[in-house]
Design goal:
Length: about 400
């Protein structure tokens, strides 16, 4: 059985609800929730959609003709298309256009932003998706007339038909019965001589007047063609048009997701700590190499010097003195520092220099076996040679040995 949940809102905060059998047009159940009360509904197993009827006196409704090709452009242009007709400032008004029809026109609805948020908070806990929003003047109007005048009791609802609507101007709304004598005449003139459907209780008659077919607001709303309902702007947001309530589906997963996020944060902090440690180790090696250089060249000017520069300067001095190449230790440590400068995944544990072989034995910790391959590739570019001495897993890291030689 195809059923609709109808939620009719009043400006004062009262909510009228009913469950309607859409196929037969029968109200199965109904009730009222007073302002501040929770909307308490029975089981909604047979309900396929929700129609929210808004008080027309709180909603601006119009049909606009926008040159915008996409929905995003339409959302940007819609407020300015109706700005002159609005009685409120755009800054505090929510303006939402509907989908584009075959003629390139779109319905547009506007209401105070605070009011819309209050409506959403009222109906979201009980609504069955998809949820469609429309002013109650749209629900009661007849489709084949130029103007509908419906007596709601506390207000008179009105809506121009397709032949009388003017793009950008208000297409429907609600009026105080006390003002009907002065307002109805201009509305009828706006119908351009077309047929006017009017509630019998209003006592209006004329050549182009006909009695409005009897029917309650919720039953009339349920009987509207689905295509017409779907053309109404999603004033509550596109998320309510989806059949899936993602917030409800992710609710049970909230705790596991929170724990997972905590683990990811902890892992990130651990990796960040290791990166800082590797950087400190690299700096320590650089400082040791520079200290060795300054000990060998005490008259060097007091300025900052990097290990690679120290090696080149020392080599130049020794060559000038006929002493051949610079100290292999300085060259090797400078090369090692430059080799690992940008490798935060490699941590140098300790080094040992063999003067007789002019080689540097290095013990390091890797995060993966591929780290040595990356070092070896960089070593070839720097003109040094690495000899792999093997690696083994040690806790959460990999401990490896290798030898550094000058080519």
């Amino acid at each position: 059985m195809s059923q609709d949940l109808i939620l009719r809102l009043e400006e004062a905060g009262r909510v009228h609800w009913s469950i309607v059998d859409r196929r037969h047009g029968d109200r199965l159940r109904g009730g009222v929730a007073e302002p501040g009360e929770t909307v308490d509904l029975p089981a909604l197993d047979g309900v396929e959609r929700t129609l929210v009827l808004l008080p027309s006196e709180a909603v601006f409704l119009s049909l606009i003709d926008l040159p915008a090709r996409g929905d995003r452009e339409a959302r940007q242009a819609a407020p300015f298309a109706i700005e002159e007709e609005l009685a409120s400032r755009l800054s505090g008004t929510m303006v939402v256009p509907g989908p584009r029809d075959g003629d390139g026109r779109r319905w547009v609805m506007a209401a105070a932003s605070d009011t819309v948020r209050a409506w959403i908070d009222r109906v979201a806990p009980v609504a069955v998706r998809p949820l469609h929003v429309l002013p109650d003047c749209v629900a009661v109007a007849e489709r084949d007339v130029a103007l509908t005048l419906y007596d709601r009791g506390d207000s008179i609802l009105w809506l121009y038909g397709a032949e009388a609507r003017k793009p950008g101007e208000i297409a429907g709304g609600a009026m105080d019965p006390k003002l009907s004598s002065t307002v109805i005449s201009p509305l009828v003139r706006g119908a351009g001589g077309g047929v006017v459907a009017v509630s019998a209780s209003l006592g209006l008659a004329g050549e182009n007047f006909r009695q409005l077919a009897h029917g309650d607001v919720d039953l009339k709303a349920s009987a509207l063609p689905h295509a017409f309902v779907a053309a109404m702007p999603p004033l509550f947001g596109d998320r309510f048009l989806s059949r899936l309530d993602w917030s409800g589906l992710t609710g049970p997963l909230r705790r596991p997701l929170t724990l997972a996020a905590g683990l990811l944060l902890a892992a990130g902090l651990l990796l960040g700590g290791e990166a800082v440690y590797y950087r400190l180790q690299a700096e320590r090696l650089e400082e040791a190499a520079v200290a060795e250089f300054r000990a060998a060249v005490p008259d060097f000017p007091d300025r900052r010097v990097v290990p690679a520069e120290a090696g080149r300067l020392l080599a130049g001095r020794l060559a000038g003195l006929g002493g051949g190449e610079s100290s292999p230790f300085l060259q090797l440590t400078a090369a090692l520092a430059e080799l690992t400068a940008d490798r935060e995944t490699v941590r140098i544990d300790h080094i040992r220099f063999d003067r007789a072989r002019a080689e540097l034995s290095v013990s390091a910790l890797y995060t993966g076996f591929s780290d040595f391959d990356a070092l070896n590739a960089r070593a070839e570019a720097l003109g040094i040679r690495l000899d792999d001495g093997g690696a083994r897993e040690s806790g959460n890291a990999i401990q490896g040995e290798f030898t550094v030689r000058l080519q």
